[in-house]
User: Fold these one by one.
Assistant:
Number 1:
Amino acid sequence: MAPRLPSAVDYRRLLADGGLLAGDIEAASLTRIGGNFRLAGPVSARLGLRRDEHSRVLVEGEFTATLEARCQRCLEWMPLELRGRLALVLGDPDNEMPVLDDDEDLVEVSGGKLALWGLIEDELLLACPMIPRHPAQDCAGREEAQTAAEDAHYKPFAGLGAMLDQQRDEDH
Ligand SMILES: [Zn+2]
């Protein structure tokens, strides 16, 4: 079994120790995953801290998690594998805050501690699909779904024939 990932680390000490950390977070520790999602096991994460050329501290990593999600078409629970990557710039309010590019996000530390569980849970919530659904062919709600899809089918040229006829009439 993988070691447990600590809930928070002293980021300076971690940097001095090489910056790498890997481990699991127990499902019970991540209480913000709820609603249409539930964790089916621990979340595995690997993280790396390093300084970039501007002396900023970068937090990079990846995670994998096995969840269950409630299909929004048939309301049955289904397995959902999530994996994701993260790349953030660490901001320490006790020091000068880093300058960010438009596409960069900040993770703030408090008292020199980087909250690992909170960080991974944030990323996991972001990785959850907005509307979880079975693939159409596997979903018990598929018949309703197909009918709805047909009703909503957009026919961009449906009115074109009538429009042309009308135009032709106007031309004469
Ligand atoms: Zn379904």
Number 2:
Amino acid sequence: MILETERLILRGWRDEDASGLFKYAKDDRVGPSAGWLPHKDEKYSKAVIRTVLSGEETYAICLKGTDEPIGSIGLTFRESKERGIPKDGAELGYWLGVPFWGQGIAFEAAKEILRHGFLDLGLKTIYCAYFEGNERSKKLQQKCGFTYHHTNKKTHVIMLGEYRTEHINTISWGDWKKNN
Ligand SMILES: CC(C)(COP(=O)(O)OP(=O)(O)OC[C@H]1O[C@@H](n2cnc3c(N)ncnc32)[C@H](O)[C@@H]1OP(=O)(O)O)[C@@H](O)C(=O)NCCC(=O)NCCS
């Protein structure tokens, strides 16, 4: 599926995006904030496209008229008892290449994914987490209308081999509808 906003096209990831993905995902200001390692080469980026970014509701964020991914956003549907995400709970995740921070691009993409999730997919609740200290992500979630749900004091961040505190927010269809 392809989604569109004023400035963006959100479309599925493809093998050919490997070099574009590597360009932004090698930056150590991106992945570790979200719990994954900076990419080490294009081969690794290609493997990530095939394994992690291949989900049906995972989208490459492209500026209109370029077709070059500058970030990723999507919904995953994995129950996590340890983290307090229920079986029917969709979770929003996102990141953006550093040169594109501070322009409202992540906000614009997240608003469209929420619309898509609630109106097209008929979801009832969407969850979104951030690690303690990730103020940009916290702010983005607040702007989107997410509210605090619970905190996990010791979430195992497997890829980074460490434990972190994560805060989990939610937004229900009813709350989303009030403001959209
Ligand atoms: C989290 C992340 C996506 C946020 O990106 P961002 O660019 O700061 O987010 P936004 O799209 O909300 O942009 C916010 C800023 O753009 C500015 N802006 C410009 N035009 C705007 C517009 N039309 N609408 C909204 N904000 C706009 C605002 O000033 C705003 O800054 P402020 O909130 O301090 O006022 C980014 O920092 C990132 O990729 N981090 C690393 C990975 C990560 O942490 N992922 C999340 C894991 S939980």
